[in-house]
Amino acid sequence: MEKKKYMVIFQPSARRGLIEEDTNLIEASRQLGVDIEALCGEKKVCGKCKVRIEEGFFEKFGIQSSRSNVSEWQEEEDKFFTPVQKDEGYRLGCVAKVKGDLLVFVPEEARAGKQVVSKAARDIHIDWNPAVKQYSVEVVPPTFEEPSGDFERICRELERNFGLRDLTIDWHALRKLPRRQREGNWSVTVDVWMDKEIVRVLPAKTEDYYGIAIDVGTTTVAAYLCNMRTMEVLTTTSMMNPQCKYGEDVMARITYHMMNPGGLETMSNDLVEGLNKLISQGCESTHPPKKRKKKKAEDVDASTEPVELPDTTKAEEESEEVDPKKYPCLTTNDIVDLTLVGNTAMHHILLKLDPEFVGLAPFPPVIHRSLDIKARDLGVNINDSAYVHILPNEAGFVGADNVGVLIAEEPYKHDQMQLLIDIGTNGELVLGNNKKLISCSCATGPALEGAQLSYGMRAAPGAIERILIDPETHEVDYKVIGRDAWKKYSKPEEMKTKGICGSGILDVLAELYSSGVIEKSGRFSKNQKSNRYRVNPDTRQPEFVIAWANETSIGKDVVITQKDVRQIQLGKGALYTGCKLMMRRMGLSQVDTIKIAGAFGTHVDKTKALIMGLFPDCDLEMVHAVGNAAGDGARAALLNREKRAEANWVARNVEYIELTVESDFQQQFMEAMQVPHMKDAFPHLEGVVPPEVLHQK
Amino acid sequence: MEKKKYMVIFQPSARRGLIEEDTNLIEASRQLGVDIEALCGEKKVCGKCKVRIEEGFFEKFGIQSSRSNVSEWQEEEDKFFTPVQKDEGYRLGCVAKVKGDLLVFVPEEARAGKQVVSKAARDIHIDWNPAVKQYSVEVVPPTFEEPSGDFERICRELERNFGLRDLTIDWHALRKLPRRQREGNWSVTVDVWMDKEIVRVLPAKTEDYYGIAIDVGTTTVAAYLCNMRTMEVLTTTSMMNPQCKYGEDVMARITYHMMNPGGLETMSNDLVEGLNKLISQGCESTHPPKKRKKKKAEDVDASTEPVELPDTTKAEEESEEVDPKKYPCLTTNDIVDLTLVGNTAMHHILLKLDPEFVGLAPFPPVIHRSLDIKARDLGVNINDSAYVHILPNEAGFVGADNVGVLIAEEPYKHDQMQLLIDIGTNGELVLGNNKKLISCSCATGPALEGAQLSYGMRAAPGAIERILIDPETHEVDYKVIGRDAWKKYSKPEEMKTKGICGSGILDVLAELYSSGVIEKSGRFSKNQKSNRYRVNPDTRQPEFVIAWANETSIGKDVVITQKDVRQIQLGKGALYTGCKLMMRRMGLSQVDTIKIAGAFGTHVDKTKALIMGLFPDCDLEMVHAVGNAAGDGARAALLNREKRAEANWVARNVEYIELTVESDFQQQFMEAMQVPHMKDAFPHLEGVVPPEVLHQK
């Protein structure tokens, strides 16, 4: 009898497929080309293959995922999980077996291949001038002649030594002040926010102090834990946005809020809980590895009831000779500042600001300007007295994340006309220079990042990232991440191909087009030259085989379908239309520089992107990938307070263009879906693409 | 068989005595001279005689009070109490019977005689310039051409109409902003704190808005609910400081904190809970009487989880034609500002600041300067976004309450040398003028207020407030509060005497001295002329009968004992020593004006006070009672922000003198215990007191 099959979807890659009942999740992940670390070879001893079963009805996938849809908890799992994690649905992938439809989240640490296109911090130049600065002073103890207050005593020294005047103090910091001052024998270290407010008093002299910059993406959240003194990024942690279960994109989440009383609070609370985990993880990574499990348990406690860990913990570790430079052993209380960027909807949902009007024409946000909110008000577990600085929004659909890109890239400081493209789940564009800046938002969808495509996957080992298709034979050569040799120079079984990553998708499309497999319209050409083209008997969709099953580690042909091509066309059409309409507004036929932000930009082949007509013609030398520039902006605002002022200035001085109200938007959009573009000239493509292809009608 | 007797103590009057088992609390209160309202004559139908049984061990009284020390709850009581009140120990005085030792608190509303010397607001001059100001603006709705944020839209109008720039907004106010703006059809009323931060957005145009000034005394807490537009005091509410159960005075409470882990939090939380009730009561008093019970229930809900009452409540009442001018029907959410004064220990305990060091030489406070803390951080139930402004402390033992007195009386604005005396549970003195101000604290104890004396009581009907003793016969004539005719012109049974109030105590002592019943040393004279002097057979203490049992409503002689006299001598000695040492510091032999703040000052006979040697010789025309000046100061700071700056200035510019370190303090104190004073000249007493008495050695 044939076994029953269930839909299993792995996040964040969104790889999915029908899996036989009783298959364990490691095996399922292999079948679907998802990488889960399993060092011990499924012997249930390494504990690396931790995954989390998500619960709920996932409309997009049409599945009901539940923790009862996997086999029962096994004793072997106990030692790898805290009771809290168990409650959260964590399992070992080698133990848990499929018993029904499942949405499985693979945490960063369990992903086998390191993500190549990560949200890692770039080395951008930032001048040191943080909002929170640290000062050490020696205080004169009180006497009958001079019995003034503890606070005033510290202020006097801060004014005398550092010229700080009229300081206030956060209540929680004040509560700790008398003890700390006496513990340090009248020597204290004080953290001052914006030269205004004391947010922490520590006993004795301390030099290093810490902050976190967070980029809340619609799909992914990334946190950069920084040493505020050295500006060094200690660690980068990331996770799937926990709101994904309420909707894949911004509009879906706004709708969730409108349809569900209390939905806004739920989404916000889930995100805050996620942020707290991310912050805990960041702190935990500063402990020596052997200590981490213990620490983790404490952090879990700290997240339910924030308490400052007793200093004895640190003393203990020092006695075991842990190098404090290498392992500062931070707790969440050591984080004294936090900056945050995110698009306007993420911003509103996090702050529990009604996002309904952002979703309704003319899409006004509740607020543009940056906010400084006490972390404790938001429920964010960092130091009791610390602020969360949320960068300003430009407009309803161009949020603080785009402002982050702007203050990282600073187009307003240059004469050249720059086009900044930030492609995430939503596309945001800025065009301009030191004279004028305009911005717009375009619904690129997730296809350009390789998500929601038949064989799309994250940029990880086994992902196709480069491809060549012979125009004469339609034969395919390609390269996967994690292997230098192209297929042509490899045995099929050496490839271990799993899918196509975001940047590879464009390569594939560009080659399909250049080689004539697809037409300018995106349709598969009638003039096919290989057996790679076929109509799938199940879906009745035309598809083109990129890798045959024997080259893959998933035992199936990796294909690209007509629907996949359409998805990408819609995305790139939206992007291209945005660029062109913005250029028209500015009276430009050409831009000087194009900067592509987001993971997408990092590995994209610029030529192929141009062939695909992703953005307007430009000297390829002047097209740059700038990584997670939004996160860089958050980090800049963490380490330099001037950047916060700059952010508020730029948010109010970028003119937002609502594209969809342009009278010819629809026509422009239809034309832009062509590969590369029906009407526009692409002089920089001459000599790159065969003339007959480039100029075909 | 004789019935068993138990100690029953009524608060806040501290009247106490042994009461037979099964006596109900109304009867017990009568026997002890405490006034409890009982309109229905103990028929259990009026519900006026509500009292609260306090639980715990009361060290000072040596009793263990418990709710099981009264008879069982009766069905009749159900309709007068909410379940919350029942849990809190509320009972009807006519129902509950004595079954053991009891500490019974009589709430303000159950006290039969209105307190004559109340903490009512005085009519002091205050310029209107509150920290929170209210502005109404019309906002332009967003369009595609101008789709900027809701917040920025309001700010633009506030800047254009009122010149307010660079405003920030409290997060909670921001959360409500989008709906409120649309509810008001783009007309909004905005409350702005210190021209900096928006703390409330209301739909449509509104004129009146409200704040509360609170004086946290060691024993009594008083709240003044003010219309912030008209500056009118709508209502004054007061209660016993709920911390009294942890100790009668400041040092006892500091000790409680040091001896009990978590004691600081407990005391703070109890006070905050008390403040919330006081605020609720204030708001409730703005509702029409017939609606109050219903409102009360809502307020109880609001205190556990602060929610803004739906606007429908107001609409409902308006439809029943309640005059909104007379009954603005406030809820705690309508309170948008709160100022607070209290001595340094009350300040520290409320704010959970470690008070240990305030109690240890050299007594430094944790902080002097004023604090602005979000009410929500403190757990104070007013508007979500409102601040609590806590006035600054002068020194460890001269707190924000004294600063309140100073900004109300403004001695620093005059040439005359003023002596400000604030007598509460602790005495605080300020001496100076526009050139220099010095302050000190003196341990007057509660005796000067009539507390802890054998027949001391609050200034209420039946309390002796004036007395005359014939020097020839030692016969006594007196007057009680609530009756114009003196005893001489009354039948004994008409007097209904109950005890001696604070101001009366001084009168009694002064007359005892002037008539020669006691000597300058405070000892009863050997030369007694009546049978009023006797040695109590039980206590073996000498005592002097002021009112015979048949003149009283308590059926017992009202006496003053040698111990009572000593208590008062200690109090007045501390006060007088403070005054004299301060004058010596300033090089003064005479002051121009004396102002006496606190309930004590309001009804004190100035001449008698001088005879008693309470304060140094002064032209009696220039001795003024200024009522609850500390509360006035809190109100001034509520309604005029300049007063807040003035308070911080004055708190740092009053020089605090620690009296106990003066080398001759002990000698001065011993001398000052004399009546009036052994060595000092009292020219203003010449002709007032018989020369042979005044100049007796």
Automatic annotation (TrEMBL), chains A, B:
Pfam families: Fer2, RACo_C_ter, RACo_linker, Raco_middle. Residues 311-324 have a biased composition (Basic and acidic residues). It comes from the Bacteria. Signal peptide: none annotated. InterPro entries: 2Fe-2S_ferredoxin-like_sf, 2Fe-2S_ferredoxin-type, Beta-grasp_dom_sf, Corrinoid_activation_enz, Raco-like_middle, Raco-like_middle_sf, RACo_C, RACo_linker. Gene3D superfamilies: 3.10.20.30, 3.10.20.880, Domain of unknown function (DUF4445). Residues 6-110 form the 2Fe-2S ferredoxin-type domain. Residues 281-324 are annotated as: Disordered. One of its GO terms (molecular function) is iron-sulfur cluster binding. PANTHER family: IRON-SULFUR CLUSTER PROTEIN, IRON-SULFUR CLUSTER-BINDING PROTEIN-RELATED. This is DUF4445 domain-containing protein. It comes from Desulfomonile tiedjei.
